[in-house]
Amino acid sequence: AASFTQKLFRMYAEDFERFGYQPRVPSLPMIPRSVFPPGFWCVVTRCRREPALAEFCSYYLAEGADHVFVIWDTRVGDSNPMEGLPSPLPDRVTVLTDVDTTQKQTVRYVYQNFLRQRFTWVSHLDVDEFVVPVREPGSTIRETLMAVFDRSGCDQVHVPWVMMSCNGRKEETATPLQDLTWRWDHDRRHVGSTPRSRKFRCRFDEIETKTFVRCAAYGTLACDHFAGSPVYPGSPSVVDSVSGKAHTTGTMFHQLREHDIRSAHMVCYHFRLQSLAACKRKMGDSNFYSQGRETEADMMSTDFSEIEDATLRVRRLAQLGIERTN
Fold first, then answer.
1. Of the four, 8, 144, 188, 192, which is 20 to 30 A from 36 by CA?
2. 117-148: per-residue pLDDT in tens?
3. What does the DSSP 8-state code read for residue 179?
4. Whole-angstrom distance between the N-terminal and C-terminal Cα of the chain?
5. CA dihedral in degrees (75, 76, 77, 80; nearest 10)?
């Protein structure tokens, strides 16, 4: 029998062609997890062999996401395409498989023709990105999204990164929220071994943001850093998650400082650097790193462990019902 993914792609084949994409049917069926009732907010991620995927899914479900959709990268020639996929995953997690190594086409299509008809808000996040409410730490992401941004009528929320570090850790971890508590001091400039690199540059002047997108306002999802084409003429309401005011600087937040992090409605802790072993894994798995632009030594040169910040560790332990002991 045809999988849900195959039915989905066939059902919208005409739209696929109309929007300029080539019809694709994933080579592997989706792993069905549950039915898909309409919801307020869902998370979409795309990844390959990420040890922290289970923690990522569990975290966002605990923060009020109705569903987590995982676009699982299966490369042509993989002897075990599902290697690294945690089992079992939490309920309300659905895995879609695809051999498109950029995976962006799949995310865009699933958003256009499935997610935006069923959810009010969508967040496209990587597995090493964890959004957290700061100004109201007792609120979940869902509650903050509802109270601050949904009620104000905005259409897109840009959440700035906070750069985490591994403090010289050697081995992989499946629980970075519990094991990694050091990060950059965003009041300082940072220069690693490849300062001109897009990935490893200084972020004193500007830093990337991730977005929450109101589905009714956008017909497409361009990428994980910004939405695509608006549904209606005119300019959608776009704000940042620090002040809740208009955001006019594209995919970047300008001059993020420590006082911004302390007072923001929400920020996104970015665990790009989790260990030396994780750096080596990324070098082999990521399209960007595998092209030989940088080495694991270049990545580790950005291990600026300057501020100990246990915000997410405390929050994760509370989700798990574990009393903090240190």
1. 144
2. 899 999 999 999 999 999 999 999 999 999 99
3. H
4. 52
5. 40
Amino acid at the residue 286: S
**Which DSSP letter does residue 145 get?**
I
What sign does the CA torsion over 169, 174, 176, 178 have? negative
Do 61 and 37 meet the contact criterion of CB atoms below 8 Å apart? Answer: no
Question: How far is the C-alpha of 325 from the C-alpha of 39, rounded, in Å?
Answer: 36
Give counts: helices (H), strands (E), the chain. Answer: 11, 12
pLDDT for the residue 10: 43
The pLDDT of 239-259, averaged and rounded, is 94
Question: How many C-beta neighbours within 10 Å does residue 100 have?
Answer: 16
Task: Say how far apart CA 97 and CA 262 lie, in whole Å.
Answer: 38
Mean pLDDT across the chain = 82
Please state which of the ranges 17-31, 48-62, 161-175, 268-282 shows the lowest mean pLDDT. Answer: 17-31
Backbone angles phi, psi at 316, to 5 degrees: -65, -45
Dist. CA 140–CA 62, nearest whole Å:
8
| Rounded Cα distance, 285 and 296, in Å | 13
Distance of CA 123 to the CA centre of its chain: 7
Give the Cα separation of 126 and 118 in Å (integer): 21
Read off the pLDDT band of 323 (50, 70, 90).
low
**Tokens at 24, concatenated:** 């694709």
Name the one residue in this structure whose structure tokens are 């209606």: 232
Q: Which residue type sits at 266? A: M
